[in-house]
Amino acid sequence: MWHFPKGYVIIQIEGVYPERLASLLQQAGVPTWDICRPAPGGLQLSLPAAAFSRLHGLNRRCRCRIRIREKRGGRRLIRALWARRVLLLGMVFTVLLALWASHRVWFIDLKDCGRMDEAVLLEALFDQGVRPGRNLKRLPLAQIADFVAARYEELAFLELHVDGVILRVRAKEALMEGDRLDLSQPCDVVAAKAAVVTSVTCYAGRPRVKAGERVEPGQLLLSGAVTARDGSMTYPTHAYGEVLGAVLYEARVPAPVTGVEWASTGSEAPYGALYVGQKRLLFRKSPFSEADLILEEKPVRLSPWPIWIRRGVYREKGKLERPLSQSERREAALFQAERDALLQVPRQAKIIMINRYTVETGGTLYGVCAVTAEENIGTTKEIR
Question: Model-level pTM?
Answer without folding.
Answer: 0.46
